[in-house]
Amino acid sequence: MQDLNVILNNIIQMFQQQYPERSVTRNWQDRSAYKNSELEPGVLTLVYTGESLIGNAYATHVNLLVIGRVYCGHHAQGLDVEQRELTFLKQWRDFCTSSLVGNISIQRVMTSQQQEVPDGWFICECVAGPFDLGAEIDWLSGGPAEFPDTIHVSQRPDIGLPNQDDYFPVSDLKDE
């Protein structure tokens, strides 16, 4: 079982280790909360947005919103901003596909489209996982009351009730 806060904190800590020049946080703030000098090296914000494939706590996928912001200087042109965004985005993309985490996939990317010069930003909708978020509860602490004498199996496509007569004991399987 893994704790969701630990998972999210590990993601930002690993990105920070990989790219120490960037500032990394889980605390989203409006642009007005930052000085230009704070955004110049780039700020990456990781926001938990929910989960998907609900119903299997042992293989939960976590939805994330990743916001990269960068200030490009008061003389920056639109293309300068776009290039800084793409450089920063490439770092996030490289991180997602690296062996550091290896389980974050980017689903969608949006950028400032050069509309907010001298500020640049990108937003990635991501899915991470699967993660085991199940509780460590032993439902059969004493074990089952009775064990079956044999376990019967079959192979596709001969499975299910219509093929029940074709099942055979597991002990009949040969090592292949």
Automatic annotation (TrEMBL):
- Disordered: annotated span: 153-176
- The protein in question is named Phage protein
| Protein's organism | Vibrio spartinae
